[in-house]
Write a structure and sequence with these properties.
Blueprint lengths: L10 E6 L6 E6 H12 L8 E7 L12 E5 L7 E7 L2 H73 L6 H32 L8 E4 H18 L3 E6 L4 E4 L1 H18 L5 E8 L4 E4 L1
Parallel strand pairs: 7-9
Antiparallel strand pairs: 1-2, 3-5, 4-5, 6-8, 9-10
Helix pairs in contact: 2-3, 3-4, 4-5
Length: about 290
């Protein structure tokens, strides 16, 4: 049986008391400790440990710190314990502080991202509400605008059917009004269709070479009746034979809208200036 002999600080006496002739020998505890340490420490850490073999005089020490650990050296040497501690405890404190800073910065960044996301969400909700309001206003305005040409068409057509028109001149004038109001109604319907395409991102323009001079003159001819009954003085500065690769219907519709807005929103000033000019780098249409 092997057992330790207490009272020896740096050596241990091992002996076998079985048999007729007991024998024993001494060992160097420090050398044994170094051998055990080399066998046990296989995975080094980033922290430098300090490992000591201490004589506890038969009493087991208990650690009052998380950074110091006492463990049994061997059941055959109960007078010694292994003490494991850090050579520099400030390293752990610095490590913990860095970790806290990293987690703190990460938490702040997370809060920032969440806050930024909430701002974007609020802006999107606000934009959607604005779009809903614009759609409602658009529908209301379109409904009102559609009633105007329909009322005119119905009124003049009804007068013709009831025989209220006594002269060919008045009949021709009423027929022109019906045609013009029909054209206006057609343009408004086209506007609604274009708006619908814009909302669904399906709006496309087919470009082709067109005579802008003819487009402007045709648009003015269609709008001449409304300019006349609203007492507008029209000044024209239109160059001849101005060609460009455009969407003819889109240009015509845009001009009609601009002229309609001028008629609708002009107050006392009843002058409309329309020009079509061309230079080396660009073509300019002004209303």
């Amino acid at each position: 049986m092997l057992k330790s002999v207490s009272g020896i600080t740096d050596e241990g006496l091992l002996f076998n008391k079985t048999g007729l002739n007991p024998v024993g020998f001494t060992i160097d505890l420090e050398e044994l400790f170094d051998l055990v340490k080399q066998q046990q420490i296989k995975n080094p850490t980033r922290f430098e440990n300090q490992i000591e073999l201490i004589n506890n005089n038969g009493q087991n020490y208990l650690s009052n710190s998380d950074l110091i650990n006492f463990s049994e050296f061997s059941p055959y040497f109960n007078s010694h314990q292994i003490k494991v501690s850090l050579k520099n405890e400030d390293i752990v404190k610095e490590y913990v502080l860095k970790r806290k800073m990293i987690y703190g910065i990460g938490f702040v960044l997370l809060l920032g991202v969440m806050f930024f996301g909430l701002i974007l969400l609020a802006q999107n909700v606000k934009r959607e509400k604005q779009m809903e309001g614009l759609r409602a206003d658009f529908v209301s305005n379109v409904t009102h605008e559609l009633k105007t040409p329909l009322t005119s068409i119905h009124m003049f057509a009804d007068s013709i059917l009831l025989g209220r028109i006594k002269s060919d001149i008045d009949l021709n004038r009423y027929a022109k009004v019906i045609v013009k109001e029909s054209e206006k109604l057609k343009r408004m319907i086209n506007n609604i269709l274009e708006f619908s395409k814009t909302e669904s991102n399906k709006l496309t323009y087919a470009l082709e070479t067109a005579n802008l001079t003819n487009i402007v003159n045709e648009t003015l001819k269609e709008m001449s009746y409304f300019l006349e009954i609203n007492n507008f003085d029209v000044n024209l500065n239109i160059e001849k034979n101005v060609f460009a690769k455009v969407n003819a219907e889109g240009i015509k519709q845009t001009l009609s809208n601009l002229i309609s807005n001028a008629i609708k929103y002009s107050s006392t000033c009843r002058k409309l200036n329309i020009s079509l000019t061309k230079n080396v780098s660009k073509i300019l249409i002004e209303v």
